[in-house]
Specification:
- The protein is built from 2 helices and 36 strands.
- With about 500 residues, it is mostly beta strands.
- Strands 6, 7, 8, 9, 10 and 33 form a 6-stranded antiparallel beta sheet that branches. A 5-stranded antiparallel beta sheet has the order 27-28-36-1-35.
- Strand 20 and strand 21 form a beta hairpin.
- The longest helix has 11 residues.
- The radius of gyration is 21 Å and the shape is globular.
Length: about 500
């Protein structure tokens, strides 16, 4: 697993002692703003590291969790992991898919903890589609993009593997990062050399029949030839696909919209997004019923912050909001944005400032924000386990969904002290700085770009069944699943796990 380098046990103990008086548990919240109570809380995974990236919720309230694992079959590199929980939190099934070499979706810029929250999508029939990359032909070969379909009962429906050529050359590499479903089509997006440049020199968009997996069209596109460009999120409707990510020319965000006229993929427009700082990326995108576009910005530089902006269907600026700007180090990570009912939900990890006892400034805390669609901040909550060496954990929200009025929050937790138990706190009840501000339109002068487009429709897509190394495995019996307290009492260890919280009252 690609974990950030973590301090030793002694170093963490020293940091905790420097930052806070000894605590046996999280400080009690003031009576005026009690912690947010979850309807359901689960921590689950295997004996080694499991990193959650994406979650989808079906029409019955079942939730599918998709990420990467070293817990089960491949304990050296990664396999893909998909876990299904029922609406009551019961483990229904778990599967891995992978080879003896590396299988995972690419993490976004500075996204050290997992991949895109659009790594999975759910179709109208309840099937789940997963995008990733795989070294199906060995570690000396280029990566190939991987797309597969999973039934609600855990069967592998079909699997597709693609790169623009099968020779052992870096320019033939392809990795999938995002998937979206609309109009009977599944759209896979990611990065490729397109047979022309090296590795991530271009981005690609491919369409497949959702039922059969038949290839319909593949194009590569390059907003800025000569530098790397990356796609991390995609959203499709009946007429178009919007893709967001990063370009190597400005080292900031990129957005491109493709028209989907039948199976023809044509660029409508492409624009560079001047996010707050270089090294930042448009890590996620969603749209509302009117076609307005919402972009999550993961902001890095001398200071980091959580950012979200709204554009019209034509990419005209509507508004932008910044949360907790100025935090040092890499503690503010924006991961996802979703339009859920009439709310906008933004989630990630936050390093709140101004105290050492009410927020985890060492590792950061999971963060969930809700906004109205006109940009009003409605609620803010962070998940705090404590700061002392016997309770500290690193966690982050990576994905959100909804079932009716119930908000689902999925993420990861690395329990340094084997502690998974925390509180979802409102920062307004504590002595922490959590600035939230409106960003002026002058900061967001989007720049038109005309990408170079290459039709790759004739390049060969292969069935996953052609590769004997690519194996679908039932690992249900090996997954542990319990409440945060149950997992803590079981001394589950110091490995990264998936988590799920559900809440009434936020949507």
């Amino acid at each position: 697993m690609r974990m950030v380098p973590l301090p030793s046990v002694a170093a963490v103990a020293m940091l905790a002692g420097a930052f806070a008086p000894p605590l046996q548990a999280a400080d009690p919240a003031p009576a005026a703003i009690p912690p947010l109570q979850a309807d359901l809380a689960r921590v689950f995974g295997g004996p080694q590291d499991d990193m959650l990236s994406s979650m989808v919720v079906d029409s019955s309230g079942n939730a599918y969790f998709i990420g990467e694992t070293k817990s089960f079959i491949d304990k050296t590199y990664n396999d893909l992991l998909i876990v299904k929980l029922g609406p009551d939190g019961a483990l229904l099934w778990a599967r891995t898919y992978g080879t003896p070499d590396d299988d995972r979706a690419k993490g976004y810029i500075d996204g050290k903890h997992g991949a895109s929250s659009r790594m999975a999508a759910i179709g109208p029939d309840g099937s789940v589609y997963v995008a990733a990359g795989s070294m199906v032909t060995g570690r000396k070969e280029p990566w190939a993009a991987l797309l597969f379909k999973v039934s609600p009962t855990g069967e592998l429906g079909w699997s597709k593997v693609w790169r623009p050529g099968w020779e052992n050359m870096a320019k033939f590499q392809a990795t999938g990062s995002a998937v979206t479903v609309a109009g009977g089509r599944v759209y896979l997006a990611g990065m490729t050399g397109a047979g022309l440049t090296s590795e991530e020199g271009q981005s690609f968009l491919a369409s497949f029949d959702a039922a059969t997996g038949d290839q319909k069209g593949i194009v590569a596109f390059d907003p800025y030839p000569g530098v790397n460009d990356r796609v991390f999120s995609a959203h499709a409707d009946a007429k178009s696909v919007v893709l967001t990510g990063w370009n190597g020319k400005t080292n900031r965000g990129q957005i491109t919209r493709f028209a989907t006229d039948g199976d023809k993929l044509t660029v409508d427009w492409s624009k560079t997004i001047p996010l707050s700082s270089t090294g930042s990326t448009a890590c996620d995108v969603d749209r509302d019923a009117e076609g307005n576009v919402y972009i999550a910005g993961d902001i890095h530089g001398t200071g980091t912050n959580i950012e979200v902006l709204k554009l019209g269907p034509d990419a005209s600026f509507k508004w932008a909001r910044r949360y907790n700007p100025g935090a040092s180090n890499d503690k503010n990570n924006t991961r996802t944005v979703r339009v859920l009912r009439d709310k906008l939900v933004v989630a990630g990890r936050v390093g709140l400032m101004g105290t050492q006892t009410h927020a985890d400034v060492t590792y950061g805390d999971s963060l969930v924000l809700t906004y109205s669609l006109d940009g009003k901040l409605l609620s803010e909550h962070y998940h705090f386990t404590g700061t002392a060496s016997d309770v500290v954990a690193m966690d982050g929200a990576t994905t959100v969904g909804a079932f009716g009025k119930k908000l689902y929050v999925g993420g990861y937790i690395w329990p340094y002290a084997k502690n998974h138990v925390g509180e979802w706190r409102d920062p307004n009840g504590y002595t922490v700085n959590h600035p939230a501000s409106e960003a002026p339109a002058t900061d967001y002068s989007l720049v038109d770009v005309t990408p170079v487009v290459v039709d790759l429709g004739k390049s060969a897509v292969r069935n996953g069944s052609e590769f004997k190394s690519l194996v679908w495995t039932d690992v249900t019996a090996s997954v542990t699943n319990g409440t945060p307290k149950e997992q803590t009492d079981a001394a589950h260890g110091q490995q990264t796990q998936f988590y799920l919280y559900t809440f009434d009252g936020l949507l």
